[in-house]
Amino acid sequence: MLRATLALSVGFLGLIAGTAIGGLFVPAGSGLAGPAIALGYGVVGALVAAGAAWIASKFATPPVLRVSATVNATLASAVAIAAALAYRAAIRETYYDPPSAFAGLPHYHVSVQRLDGADPVLAKRIEIDTPTREWALQLPDDRVCSGNLRAASQATVGHAIAALAGLDESALENCRLGEARARERLSWQLGSAPPASLAVSPHCRKSQSTIAAALHAIETVHLVHPSQVECR
Q1: 113: β partners
Q2: Running along the chain, 232 residues long, what does each successive block of 10 average in pLDDT?
Q3: pLDDT value, residue 180
Q4: CB-based burial of residue 120 (10 Å sphere; 0-12 exposed, 13-18 middle, 19+ buried)?
Q5: b or e along 154-179 (b: 16 or more beta carbons within 10 Å of the residue's beta carbon)?
Q6: Residue 219, Cβ neighbours under 10 Å: how many?
Q7: CA-to-CA distance for 33 and 39, rounded, in angstroms?
Q8: Domain boundary among 95, 112, 139
Q9: ∠ CA(92), CA(227), CA(189), 5° rounding?
Q10: Looking at the 3D structure of the chain, how many domains does it have?
Q11: Which domain holds residue 85?
Q12: How far is it, in rounded angstroms, from Cα 113 to Cα 71?
């Protein structure tokens, strides 16, 4: 049991060390193959380290073996925890913005509801909520995917909604005349202003660039900036 513990612990440390060393030898421009190359070095390091530890354990006295297994197991556990924390920090840095990035950005709740369900590809509903900093996407099969809202996306959609809210009534009236042919309903509430909605037909979207820009910003919120996505 002590020999196996020692071999596994040293093998894990060899995996980490080998991967780190391998990262130094990954050629520039390797792209997605880079991590695999580094991991290959790590596997070799793990096998060599575990094999060496197993052989050495056969010649070690029981007290030495016990101390070595304990020390290496503790060290491997500490390295594993540190690696997990570093990975979590890297994920947050990649997919989440600090609270300061949201300072001064507009607050709103906005959604786009598909009225024409004939298209099997387009999402049925898209919703963005800035208080929770989340977006949600209802897929054609009724699964819902959600993700965290990035600061840049909040700013882009907010500016588009502000421009939409600033349209004069004549522009909106032209769109309301075509509600019978509407394919989607755009609803929004910007700050403390009263909620509003608009049924958008293909003609309305094509003729009103402000409305088209708002819809585009909302419909691509999950594509423009990376975020952690969960579907259920």
Answers
A1: 125, 185
A2: 91 93 84 85 94 91 90 93 85 82 95 80 90 94 93 95 89 78 93 93 90 94 84 90
A3: 77
A4: exposed
A5: bbbbbebbbebbeeeeeebeebeeee
A6: 15
A7: 10
A8: 95
A9: 115
A10: 2
A11: 2-95
A12: 59
